[in-house]
């Protein structure tokens, strides 16, 4: 183990430069997000991920945000295990009927002020699963959404561009 | 096909369905149905799937060949050495069928699903509780006679475990990590788990209903999102089933590119899983390094095929696009890179006693259970079951490639990690061979006979195990019915057995070593 640690100590980091915040995300947030909440939450955000019926594709790419290339934590984002610790809910999936109550309860358990980011094409309007008897169709149909990050699934850069917009203080 | 197979001779007594390909499907009587159940219960055959549609249930089964192919480095077996695959269909005019799970427990959740979705009742079933239907959908029996829900469903009763000092720990559906939702009900005595009961169905999206009447293009997109981590394997299974139904011959280069994508998917997932399992034993260093390997595979995939997870790259008839001119170079560099970075990580795992202390002997699954459940993939092969769909039934180009199907017998978390390590090595070797010998030519062709009804079936080895797709095409070329069966159906129940007598704190470790799919299972 020591050899491996030493070896990587001498190497330059894999972490890449940050992308610029996405313009559409800034525009969507500018219209919605409360400046007072923005000041209170500051530049460090705790994120709770909620899978509300995703195919697991979005989860894989959200996971990737934590790898050495993207290193999400350098921006002040931290993924937490409980909604009670969270400032941001990152919600994926078309919201299945069977997950609706769990999502509502998770939202209720998250302290104010809080933001909701709907991830993926499913999170926007149900995506390919729209119209099913088993899907509500879009996160905004169940809880208020502050930001949408489209894509099927959005890649880690697109996720970062969206999340960084949350930190962009006007 | 083995001419002397008992399975085939039993099925031949039924009425064969002419347009079903490539294997035999026959409409059977309840006598034949019961004989099949008997054979499944005795372990003569393996259950591959059980699904229904209005008024009929279908059962897919497999009879292993005398020489199980793939136990070690074997040349392709002669044709008569392969196992047999069949589908038996039992009409249910009175809305019920003799329960398979009555004698063969692996069928239980599948039967409960048939009751939920189609409304056919398994007679004699021990567990009458619903499975995917949580009483929340606006309709009942969405795949049968669809009717609006009128009565509320009674509360779901978990199985009891009673005794002094026992307490329950409910977990989920929202879990503490970035993972899919499901509910686990633990009954523990202090730290030791006495019983685990799973409740799944939270991510049921109604995919099978959405597939009915879908064009092939839309159906391929849906199937590619049954389980996002296995999108290549699902798309491949769907494409192969469509091609079987339409008797389409796919260009050779397309077969090879499909296998290339399938091995990239296996590589990415196994790399991620090896790291994630170690991370659940609080050994984050391994996750950090394995996540880098996974990211490199995804980036190479995006550079070669335009999508990091390779979604929508395989379609019925071939693949969407050819490798770019620098594709071979990119993938060769990837393989070389992983070959350089992976061995020190294996050493790291092998030489960290504190980590192995957590993984060795943890989450043991009896090989007899693995055989009974027909459990495939890394869990099956880490527990002595050599089944690998790339060999049996086999599909091109794997018949022309040299690879081993690693098999271990320890059946614990450690064995499941080692099996993934061995499979990473095999996938690298396969990618090497594919790049070396990639034939030239077209990458997609036209589908035959889209103006006639037909039925097709395919079994494909995903990173998690064998994925079955069965479908019927309508005369207008749309999907009349399609049933995808995830390997997790036969793996989730074994997790309940694996955790028994382990401590609660080892559950994440056991669960991650299984890495069952919630979305693929819940559909």
Automatic annotation (TrEMBL), chain A:
Cofactor entry: [4Fe-4S] cluster
Residues of the NADH:ubiquinone oxidoreductase-like 20kDa subunit domain: 55-166
InterPro entries (UniProt xref): Complex_I_20kDa-like, NADH_UbQ_OxRdtase-like_20kDa
SUPFAM superfamilies the record matches: HydA/Nqo6-like
Keywords in alphabetical order: 4Fe-4S, Iron, Iron-sulfur, Metal-binding
GO molecular function: 4 iron, 4 sulfur cluster binding; metal ion binding
Family per record: Belongs to the complex I 20 kDa subunit family.
Protein name, as recorded: HycG protein
Annotated organism of origin: Candidatus Contendobacter odensis Run_B_J11
